[in-house]
Specification:
single chain, 372 residues, alpha+beta, FAD/NAD(P)-binding domain, 8-stranded mixed beta sheet, 6-stranded mixed beta sheet, 9 helices, globular, binds flavin-adenine dinucleotide
Length: 372
Amino acid sequence: MESNVCVVGGGIVGLSSAYFLAKTGHSVTVIERDSIGSHASGFAYGSLSPLGEAGHANDILPELEIARMGMDIHTQFSRELFESTGINTDHRFRPALDLIFTASEATEAKKQIEWRTDEKGYRVEWLSNEEALQAVPHISKEILGAVYTEGVADVEPYKLLLALTQACELLGVDIVHGDVSAVIREGTSIAITTQSGVRTCDNLVLAMGPWMGKTAEWIGIKVPITPLKGQIVKLNAPNITVNCSVGWQGNYACTKPDGLLWAGTTEENVGFDDIPTTSGRDQVLEALNKMIPNLDDATLVQHTACLRPLPVDGKIIIGSVPNDQNIFLATGTGRKGILLGPAMGKIVSQLISGQQPEVEITSFSPARFASF
Ligand SMILES: Cc1cc2nc3c(=O)[nH]c(=O)nc-3n(C[C@H](O)[C@H](O)[C@H](O)COP(=O)(O)OP(=O)(O)OC[C@H]3O[C@@H](n4cnc5c(N)ncnc54)[C@H](O)[C@@H]3O)c2cc1C
């Protein structure tokens, strides 16, 4: 049944929800208090891998099915959003090369290879030092070896957000500026207060990223999400092109289609402080130099910081809240929200349309926090 839906949050999760809801015939309003894509969704690295990233592969396992779905939607988006908006989101398939420096990293990596190889559509193999250096000549000669993975991809997150925004607007989504300060159930509708007044809707999607903790006072259960800061640098590195995503222990680097070498990242538990710092920059550059030495000629072009929404149990949160079947939460994507966000948007749209989601989501329900 078509309904009037409000989505709070103009990040990848909120906009993807709005896109799929509008395509299904719902009347949708997105409320964003800053600018669309102005937080993690617009400033992430943009790596897309259901197999996880270097040193963090196990993190993705609970959401593997949703990650596979996300991978397919990204491929679909790269055509569909370009056709409707003319914006190229720089989606491309490019390999990943996870570097291994120690024997214990090698043991861990070889375990990852075992389950990664079972995943259809990917080629995963161990490369010796010589083979890895042949594949990517700029990497450190100090490595013991590397894990090479084909079938993974990336996207330019900010361009993706721009394309999604325009595509939403073409589908009739109303995108408005507003800081939501209250949500109240009023009979058959839900009233949402912003500084410019109160609007009502039949269904509400809360996709506020790391700021979801605030929703406890509206929905009667705690949403245990904390911000985890991450910093990224973009360098102009003459004569060095890295055509795959080189990774090591959660750090990564790749030459993106804009010609710049993007490198990250930090994991900082510093509350809602999202200001780039010199210590964050130095930490990223130190890891980058370990992975790709000889960057003396490189110049710093951009340095950004943003906040990941980190759930207390490490799993995404998606579904309606226990005491209101018309209020939906969609968040908790941590380090993988660019990959998972479009799939979560589609699932939200299926739930609101009364359809069975195409993947199992019971273990991601907000109900698991009812006794917190
Ligand atoms: C450095 C870094 C690199 C990353 N790299 C990758 C990667 O390579 N691959 C990957 O898959 N993921 C990556 N991520 C993770 C990904 O960026 C996040 O998981 C994802 O962007 C979260 O999306 P979101 O829509 O939930 O939140 P956000 O992007 O934070 O959007 C939430 C929005 O809600 C708005 N909002 C909050 N409260 C209110 C309110 N009261 N009223 C109105 N609006 C409100 C905010 O202003 C914000 O715009 C990275 C993250 C970081 C920090």
